[in-house]
Design goal:
Radius of gyration: 56 Å
Order of helices and strands: EEEEEEEEEEEEHEEE
Largest sheet: 11 strands, antiparallel
Shape: elongated
Number of strands: 15
Number of helices: 1
Amino acid sequence: MTARTSVTDSVAGTFTARYDADGDPATQTLPGGYTQSDEQDTTGSPTARTYTRTSDGTVLGADTVSGNTHSQIVAHGGTPGVTGSQAYTYDNTGRLPQVQDTGADAVCTTRTYTFDRNSNRKSLATATAGVGLDCTTTGATTPTPRTTARTVSSTPATSTTTSAAPPPFPAPPSPTTTTTSPSSRPPAPCARPGPSTPTCASAPAVGVRRSNRALGKPKGLVGSSGTNITTTSREHHCK
């Protein structure tokens, strides 16, 4: 398989690449007049990358890393522009107990970690050296962990369930007897009087009974369907 050596982007421009004998990228020419150079170790892992100006070879930025046999990074460095370096120390179980970090101000800060039996970090100690001096652990300080006060009662909580009494049923209303005399009983409702609407008037039933007797009819009135209608103590007739 032949590796691609050139790619052109309609916006960015043209990228060109050259490969080493192992087929790994060695140099790339980038749009804008820059060159990227990469280095790998015998396993093919990247160990260095440098950016230069193509016209005069000025180094604009560089990063280097080195690893151990377990493919863990043990050192990192950058210069110029991102001047700084870090050194990493591992224990036999692969944990990271110490980091030495030197910044662009040439001040080295050493951070040391301890772990519990489950490999969880449980403490951190930080020591800072003077400008330009070697990294040290002397005078390391341990930050005070933030804790939140919590009160735990040793008495187990008990829960009590109380059944609410059902609401009382309302007492049934006392029966009342209302006696309405014939004279106080209201007249039957009729339509409002109008030009062609009859009005109602109360007539004593005794007059109706006299008319019944006069006509030879029984005490009850006879309806239009032939059924007897029993009169009450007072009857209303519309005129």
